[in-house]
Specification:
The chain is α+β, with helices and mostly antiparallel strands. The protein is built from 15 helices and 12 strands. The strands form 3 sheets. Strands 7, 8, 9, 10 and 11 form a 5-stranded antiparallel β-sheet that branches. Helix 1 crosses helix 7, helix 1 packs across helix 15 and helix 8 crosses helix 15.
């Protein structure tokens, strides 16, 4: 487990602060760099030296490659500045690995490439082809993977023994609530519209046009949500509130991790095509939390004929005010509901989205089935967390990761302070 945390500070997930937030949104590792080419400098030559870091160089081509990658991810800010800082850091990390004899082996690189691509749900060759479509060379990817593994090896060799965590450290962290890196929370705008016999022919195309009109404008998106959305969030202009990224279905997480603020998705099918949604990315933040991982979602579903008709919604409201907890349904509609407890990743997307906005014993009426003819009322019963022993292991891993990251960042700052860095153009 310590190695996994070490990977998180190895340049595979934390090369520099300037792109750390971007890295966490996309579920991949930092950014991609390419090898230090040593071709002779020439005017207007993309392979000329742009930066000298001790006895190594960073070429104009490498900076262009990094900028292209950041641009493909809709990165904000000065892309050249971000690219230059990352590439300088990578030169220093590479030198440190060489001095310690900690360079990645060819086998490690190929394994790392497979793991790297898997974070995007792709095989290595698929991932390389996808990068090539953005103008990023395959050698660029492999060299980055090699650098990340080598830096991990450096951090492990220098600081692994100092990062040990005692049981007392774990208990203190839980009591004080100071576990950093609790995760990423995002805030979204959403417009969710169930499929019905009346709209099924053109709903997706109409939503696509609407999304294009709303892209970039949070005010217009919120106005549209109030007018059209069937989700409970419509009253708040479609704004979901801050929610852990990890609670979202994996396919949706992948979409949001590459979006810029104000950007609107294409129409997203939910529940196997039972509804379509537009999502607008509103922002993200890192959170501090000692919370244990959620292992299961306990919830109730009640199928009510009539879809989102006034009569069906009234029946859902009658049931809502008739119960205080999920257990009360046994006395109100015995046999008329279904209660399930499933892993978060096994929830249908529309159900997962509806439940994520709820506190315990709250109800949602945003989900329908059978082409909108059945209202599927949902009540959240509980978010089941890991057992205490497993939870403490998670806390221990986070503490180790924090310590290793602090050591790694401090060491990198030392390397920069001692290096002779010259910017040539």
């Amino acid at each position: 487990m310590a190695d996994e945390q070490l990977t998180g500070v190895s340049g595979m997930n934390g090369i520099i602060r300037a792109i750390r937030t971007l890295t966490q949104r996309i579920g991949l590792v930092a950014a991609i760099s390419c090898c230090a080419l040593t071709l002779p400098a020439a005017a207007q030559n993309p392979f000329e030296a742009a930066i000298r870091v001790d006895d190594q160089i960073v070429t104009t081509f490498e900076i262009q490659q990094r900028m292209a990658f950041l641009r493909a991810l809709n990165a904000q800010g000065d892309l050249r500045e971000q690219a230059v800082e990352a590439l300088v850091n990578e030169r220093l990390q590479r030198s440190a690995a060489s001095r310690l004899g900690a360079e990645a082996s060819p086998e490690d690189i190929e394994t790392g490439l497979e793991e790297f691509a898997a974070r995007a749900n792709l095989g290595p060759e698929q991932f390389l082809r996808q990068m090539a479509q953005s103008g990023i060379a395959p050698e660029t990817v492999r060299d980055f993977v090699a650098n990340g593994i080598s830096w991990r090896n450096v951090v492990r060799a220098r600081f692994g023994s100092r990062a040990q965590v005692t049981d007392e450290d774990v208990e203190r962290a839980i009591e004080l609530g100071t576990i950093l890196g609790g995760g990423i929370e995002i805030i979204l705008g959403e417009i969710i519209i169930p499929v019905t016999p009346q709209n099924q022919a053109n709903l997706e195309s109409e939503l696509a046009r609407l999304g294009a009109q709303l892209n970039g404008s949070t005010e217009q998106f919120s106005e549209a949500a109030r007018r059209f959305s069937a989700a409970p969030t419509r009253e708040a202009g479609g704004v979901t509130g801050w929610r852990p990224l990890r609670e979202l279905p994996e396919g949706l997480r992948d979409r949001f991790m590459t979006m810029g603020v104000g950007q609107v998705t294409e129409p997203v099918p939910l529940g196997g095509g039972q509804a379509f949604a537009l999502f607008q990315f509103r922002g993200q933040r890192e959170v501090e939390a000692p919370s244990l991982p959620v292992t299961a979602i306990d919830y109730v579903t009640i199928a009510i004929p009539g879809g989102r008709s006034a009569e069906a919604l009234a029946e859902a409201e009658r049931l809502r005010v008739s119960v205080d907890t999920c257990n009360d349904f046994n006395g109100v509609i015995p046999g008329g509901f279904e209660r399930q407890s499933v892993a978060p990743g096994q929830l249908a997307e529309d159900i997962a989205l509806a439940l994520r906005t709820l506190d315990e014993n709250e109800m949602s009426t945003s989900v329908t089935r059978s082409n909108g003819t059945i209202l599927l009322a949902l009540m959240l019963c509980d978010r089941v967390t890991a057992d205490p022993d497993g939870g403490r292991d998670q806390v221990r891993e986070r503490l180790i990761g924090q310590r290793l990251e602090a050591y790694a960042n401090g060491y990198l700052e030392e390397l920069r302070a001692e290096a002779n860095i010259t910017y040539l153009n």
